[in-house]
């Protein structure tokens, strides 16, 4: 799911970004795809969660009748303190390197990226 919170900023060229992520594998994967720069005013914040379980009885039908997500991946872009773009995906398995690559490529497709590694 893609959300654009600020159209004006989202249309600006993205010539550099800094990276904020606490998962080592995700960080390494993203650094293979893009040259991040700590001095930029735009940054990509990546969060993920794996092994999600829901103990609520209210979701029993969803867990039985569908593929209830067991993890998620979120990429959000900020300029200063302003969130202007978000990409989110529920996953049925653990977050993989391929999931991270596909998510980043989707972000690049949606926005006006100029720098490529």
What can you tell me about this protein's structure?
The protein is built from 4 helices and 7 strands. Strand 3, helix 2 (24-33) and strand 4 form a beta-alpha-beta unit. The chain has helices at 7-10, 24-33, 60-65, 97-110; strands at residues 2-4, 13-14, 18-20, 42-49, 71-79, 82-91, 112-113. The two termini are 25 Å apart. The mean pLDDT is 81. The protein has 117 residues and is α/β, with parallel strands linked by helices. It is 29% helix and 32% strand.
Low-confidence stretches: none
Strand content: 25-35%
| Helix content estimate | 25-40%
Instruction: Count the beta strands.
Output: 7
Major beta sheet summary: 5 strands, mixed
- Taking the alpha carbons of the first and last residues, their distance comes to 25 Å
Radius of gyration: 16 Å
Globular, elongated, flat, extended or rod-shaped: what is the shape?
Answer: globular
Mean pLDDT: 81
Order of helices and strands: EHEEHEHEEHE
Structural class: alpha/beta
- Order of neighbouring strands in the sheet with most strands: 1-6-5-4-3
DSSP summary: helix tally: 4
Which tags fit this structure?
117 residues, alpha/beta, 4 helices
Précis, in short:
By secondary structure, this protein is an alpha/beta fold. The chain has helices at residues 7-10, 24-33, 60-65, 97-110; strands at 2-4, 13-14, 18-20, 42-49, 71-79, 82-91, 112-113.
């Amino acid at each position: 799911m893609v959300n654009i919170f600020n159209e004006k900023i989202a249309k600006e060229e993205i010539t550099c970004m800094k990276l904020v992520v606490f998962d080592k594998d995700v960080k390494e994967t993203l650094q293979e795809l893009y040259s991040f720069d700590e001095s930029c005013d735009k940054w990509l914040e990546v969060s993920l969660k794996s092994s999600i379980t829901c103990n609520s009885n209210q979701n029993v039908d969803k867990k039985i009748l569908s593929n209830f997500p067991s993890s998620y991946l979120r990429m959000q872009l900020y300029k200063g303190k302003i969130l202007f773009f978000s990409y989110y995906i529920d996953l049925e398995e653990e977050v993989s390197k391929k999931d991270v690559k596909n998510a980043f490529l989707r972000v690049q497709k949606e926005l006006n990226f100029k720098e490529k590694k």
